[in-house]
Each structure stands twice: as C-alpha cells, then as structure tokens.
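Sorry to interrupt, but I need a hand with the structure work. Could you add the entry underneath, on a fresh line?
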Amino acid sequence: MGHVFDFKEALAYEKWLKKPDSRQALNLELRLLREMLRPAAGDSLLDIGCGTGACLETFLDMGLKVTGLDASTYALDIALEKTGARVDYYRGFAEDLPFDDNSFNHACLFTTLEFVDDPLQALAEAFRVSKDRVFIGVLNRYALKGVERRVKGIFSPTIYNHARFFSVWELKHMIFSLLGQVPVTWRTVCQLPSPSGPLAASLDESKWLQRCPFGAFAGMVITLVPTFRTRPISARYPGTATG
C-alpha cells in the first residue's frame, strides 16, 4: 500500500506547491513531461498517484482524456475542487490498478514511485494498462537536492521520511527486467538546489545539461512494444489406408 497522505499532509503539500520556488520547479518538471511524452490531443491518460492534482490541469490543457487515481481520499477531494467533472477519479493503489489491459494510451507516475510499497509491481501495472507510452518522474537519488531532502529528514519529520529516492540507472534496471530492451529516453531538470535565478533558468533550458543524470527531477519515457503470446497447435492429418 505504501504511504497514503492524510488530511494534514495533503493540505501541506498543496500549500507547498503554491510557494514561488516550488511552483517554478514544478513548471520545469511539467514542461519536461510535455516535451518527452508528446501525446496526441484526444489520447487517454491515467495519472497514477495524481495526489492533489499537480499535473492534471496540464494534461487537460493538452486536450487529453484524463483519469486520476490516488490512495488518499483527502488528496482526491482537493484535486476534484480544481478540475470538477473534467477528470474521472478513482481511489486505488498503484500496485493493483482497477482497469483492464491496454485501457489507456498513456500512463504517468509523477513522484509516485517514491511512496509505494512495491515499485516494481507499480511499474508492471502501469505498463499493463497502457498501450503507447509511460512517463515516470522521480526525485533523483543522486541530485544535490535529493541529498538535502534526505539529510533534512534525519533531523526533522518531513514527508520525505516516507519516500524512497531513485536514480536513472535503477529505473532502467527495473524497466528492462519487466519489458526487456524497450525504447527508453530520459532527461533531468532542476540542476541546482534552487530553481530560481538566471543561471538556474539557463541550465534547465539546455538540452545538453538535461542529459546530466544528477538533476533533482528525472523524467523517463518508455515506449511500449506489443508482445504476442503463441502456442504450438498440433496438426492432425487423416490416416492413409495401406494395402
């Protein structure tokens, strides 16, 4: 099940999103998501662990048919206030999605893997319900900001006490273990601990530096390759008479 946001945590996260630095970092992350996923208008998308709806307005602006799923009813209530009936909401867990195979064109796990019990199972479920691409966005284990968050969690209680951080290499290992050598692309943003200032902005606009594996936020897109199961069929031939 992982960590489920309670009422105070959902409100605190929403309040944190409204801070200028947080909003600037989120905008960089959402821009990376748009550039990498590149869905077509009218495509369907499942936002797994949608939380209070940080990504939902962006998906709606892209003309997508959006479904949001989260384990926290408090987070879903906040998301519903933002989007109304434009998004279909479900309460559920990333490791056990209540949808059929290939139900959506795309799936998104945006800072979701950090809080689930079984990241590998959560990825397997995202791949199962999608038929085109899956976007994974994580807090980078090897970023300066990631180290700062973990150290802060040692000395004071924060939401990051419940989080597990990932690296680009760990994500690729999990993906290939599930799907084999499928096409995977990745980039990072928020190269400096603070996203503010002209230097930070110029660094995060550089496509070359986005190939650095140490940005605070790592985005990865997996292009799903159809697989087919076959089984041998025994052929029966009529016997021939012998004389």
User: Anything to note?
Assistant: The radius of gyration is 21 Å. The beta strands are 44-48, 65-70, 88-91, 104-110, 130-139, 184-189, 217-223.
